[in-house]
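Input (structure):
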């Protein structure tokens, strides 16, 4: 996978925090000014104290390898924020979704979901890590019983909505699904704001986008990107999804 392709994929979720502040001007007496500056000095002192990492901060950090530079990663207790800027997915046919990227394809159960924040020299990107217990392998080197760690392109959880990640944000612990993530190797990197992350240091796999590379069994109607898979119009069971995936693998596999 070329480095530029990873840049395009990760950059599809261009995460920006919007800071809102209201200010009002009023005349201050000399005594009020003294109080104002006194409060400011106290605030600065407090800020210095807050800047010191706490035990909890240290425990939340994700240890990266030596090759990554300028990048910090940590777990977050909740959602960082729920809406990203607009993005544009690469237009791919059903066949191309199975061949354009080098993806593993397996069925399994979501055992753990953790929201994280990646910090690229001050530029933050909310992401998540999903641990999947592999139960059936359709393509790739995994085996039943393995645990696959997938880097997700956004936070997940109640109240989260991020454009073009509709399938991923629906993921929940205990949910079964068929997953089609890209395989990270030692050359898989992402660069932003002068920092470099070697993706293999944080996860085994990553989704090309948050909509088209997973099929989830919600217990009722399957969850997947219906626009990307017109052949699945009207399906009502996860068994139909499984049959479709197996058929597409056979159809697109070169002997």
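Output (sequence):
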């Amino acid at each position: 996978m070329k480095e530029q392709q990873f840049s395009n994929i990760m950059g599809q979720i261009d995460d920006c925090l919007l800071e809102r502040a209201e200010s009002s001007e009023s005349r201050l007496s000399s005594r009020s000014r003294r109080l104002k500056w006194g409060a400011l000095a106290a605030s600065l002192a407090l800020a210095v104290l807050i800047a010191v990492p706490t035990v909890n901060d240290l425990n939340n950090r994700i240890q990266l390898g030596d090759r990554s530079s300028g990048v910090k990663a940590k777990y977050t207790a909740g959602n960082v924020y729920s809406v990203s800027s607009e993005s544009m997915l690469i237009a791919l046919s059903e066949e191309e979704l199975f061949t354009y990227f080098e993806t593993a394809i397996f069925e399994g159960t979501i055992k753990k979901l953790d929201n994280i924040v990646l910090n690229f020299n001050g530029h933050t990107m909310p992401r998540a890590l999903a641990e999947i217990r592999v139960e059936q392998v359709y393509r790739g080197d995994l085996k039943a019983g393995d645990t696959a760690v997938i880097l997700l392109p956004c936070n997940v959880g109640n109240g989260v909505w991020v454009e073009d990640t509709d399938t991923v944000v629906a993921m929940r612990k205990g949910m079964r699904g068929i997953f089609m993530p890209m395989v990270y190797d030692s050359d898989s990197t992402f660069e932003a704001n002068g920092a470099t992350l070697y993706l293999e240091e944080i996860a085994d796999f990553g989704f090309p986008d948050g909509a088209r590379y997973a099929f989830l069994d919600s217990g009722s109607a399957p969850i997947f990107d219906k626009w990307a898979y017109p052949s699945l119009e009207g399906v009502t069971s996860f068994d139909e999804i499984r049959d479709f995936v197996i058929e597409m693998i056979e159809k697109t596999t070169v002997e």
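Notes: The radius of gyration is 22 Å. The helical segments are 3-11, 30-51, 55-60, 94-97, 238-252.
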